[in-house]
Amino acid sequence: xCPFCYIGKRNYEAALNQFSDSSNIxxxxxxxxxxxNIPEAVTENVYQYLADRKGMSYEQSVQMHESxxxxxxxxxxxxxxxxxxxxxSFNAHRMIQLAKTKDLGDAAEERLFYAYYTEGKNFGNxxxxxxxxxxxxLTEAEVQTALTDDTYAYKxxxxxxxxxxxxxxxxxxxxxxxxxxxxxxxxxEAFLETLDKSFAEWRKENPASPFEVSNGPSCSADGVCE
Length: 226
Hints:
- By secondary structure, this protein is mostly helical.
- The chain has helices spanning 3-18, 46-54, 58-74, 90-100, 105-119, 126-135, 140-148, 150-166, 188-205; strands spanning 173-176, 180-183.
- Strands 1-2 form a two-stranded antiparallel ribbon.
- Strand 1 (173-176) and strand 2 (180-183) form a beta hairpin.
- Helix 1 (3-18) packs across helix 9, helix 4 (90-100) packs antiparallel against helix 5 (105-119) and helix 4 (90-100) crosses helix 7.
- The longest helix is centred in the last third of the chain and has 18 residues, at 188-205.
- The termini are far apart.
- The mean pLDDT is 94.
């Protein structure tokens, strides 16, 4: 539910598309709640909610959201704040934790971002989360388990505690090989530079082969000889 996180995701993906070793990159999504105190049901629209929380006028809140929608458009995203439903995101994070166990973490993030910002889906509604989970290949029973089993709630809290230990105070926050970090929805060029730097160091410590190879005529395991 952080507008800059969806933009940051797109900018990171743009950088990854330009990165020559992208097949060697593994992405692990982590849970983080900007406002864990949001009630499960909120009557105010997103404009009024932010105005009340930040102590600004309704008109200022509308202008801020319109500006954010324009920023999102530059990243190829459609933000429909008129449809947005303010709700506590904890259960959505529980579903993400389930999706991660099935290598569907990125698919879950993308579906949830689109559902909130473009379609105006209500994350406080369990039936909505079941629908979104089924969209990415989870079953209704699996999503219901994620929403009721304390195992997934614990995983959410564990991620949040880890972020606190790392000193993360806001999102998006991207960590590369536990050495470098990018805070905020920076442009693709910033992500690409950090990918190049962090991967080069990782590859030096983790060579593809322990040998310096002098190549000559040979046959491969699939029967190709050259």
